[in-house]
Amino acid sequence: MNKKFRKSLFQCFVISLLMTSAAGQAQDDDDGLAKPAWMSLSAAERRAVLAFAEDYKDFMSSARTELSFVEEAIKVARAAGFRELQADSNLRPGARFYDVNRDRAITLIVVGSSSFADGFRVVGAHVDSPRLELKGRPVYEAEGFALFQTYQHGGVKNYQWVNLPLALVGHVDKKDGSRVKISVGLDPEDPIFIIPDLSPHVDQEYRERVNRDVIMGEELDPIIASIPDENNSVSNAVLGYLESEYGINKDDLVSAELVLVPAMAPRDVGFDRSLMAIYGQDDKLSSYTALRAIMEQGTPSHTSLAFLVDNEEVGNVNNTGARSTYLVDLMGELIYRQLGDRYSDRDLRLALRKTKVVSSDVNPGIHPTYPGVWEAGNAPRLGHGVNFKLYGGGFNANSEFIAWNRAYLDTAGVAWQTATYKGKASGGTIGNSLSKDNMEVIDYGIPLLSIHSTYAVSSKSDVHMLYRAMDAFYKAPD
After folding, report:
1. At CA 295, angle to CA 292 and CA 301, rounded to 5?
2. CA triplet 335, 338, 340: central angle to 5 degrees?
3. Residue 20 pLDDT
């Protein structure tokens, strides 16, 4: 039987099963917990969830880094009628534009019927994910192997990156202004790279290492070749290959952005295919749902922005991160184009004060094997919808803004829950970088299992609920 046909039959079976299970159900399980969001969906809504998940997996197969995310987002946006924002663009209500910041961040814009000075509706998320980056002088030789020296971008558990198929993606910028793109390992016919672990037969001296130190950061170096050149040098053989295949030399690698990412394709999880395992869901997941949600806007009341930005995993730094002035500069430029010589900085400041923002990011969900790391009553659960992040300590949105968000989610029939860590946990979003400019900001997202890992797990229904939540946010009345 054809695999796609078999998959379709199975999904139809799942929809039928869920419809039967939902009939006459109570609001809560016997233990007082809410039913999964799946159980409240109609058959048509379940089909929409499954179709959305297929689009998401296809997108994520290519969008492994912030650079490739922006490239793929432009393709999707242009197909939906968005055009690059130009100096002479007609900013009429309903017009659709995108603006790219240095190839690593993108803002999508749908012009609203109200003046820009009346404020914006912004969904913000980040497009970078934890990964391994090559050092400026990466190629070296050890024990007959050529290897890459790497360092980590974002918080990772080092031991998760060994014995794993890795792909090398990114580009090299040369002194003559040309750019050489490299992608090795994502195509099934490509070779992959691997960081080998120690065999249990010889690791006795290392068994006292614990948790993050089982594999040290400086040990995360993948094997890239093992055949030497005529001078018996494997590293020189690699440099020779790079010269002949790509026209780059070892000095060119200083001006490169080359990263190692898991090479596995997105896959469904479980007999019922309700979950997805995908690298990079923190936080390309929220960015993808924002991309899809803004495409649903016709002529909104307030101008809608999807602000998809780089470098959250390392503190929102650099001129492509959320702490840069790029977004505020863009808003000021739009207001200036509308007001002309009447524009003043006060117009921008008043617009920022009236702007509403959803800062969206994923967060850990309650784990079936380790439930004790959460308080059950405040734990976000996969399959239960969008979660408001209520962390306390000055990080929450104010209560009236939370209530306003609850209202449009309930009106739109979007399942939601709350997330509060047990004790103090680490992590962040782009929200604090935006709130410092006096915008009204709330953090919400959806829960994952194995967040920051090489293959995080999400619920298809949650991903679709987040998309619906963002669509409802853009359309919600003041």
Report:
1. 125
2. 95
3. 41
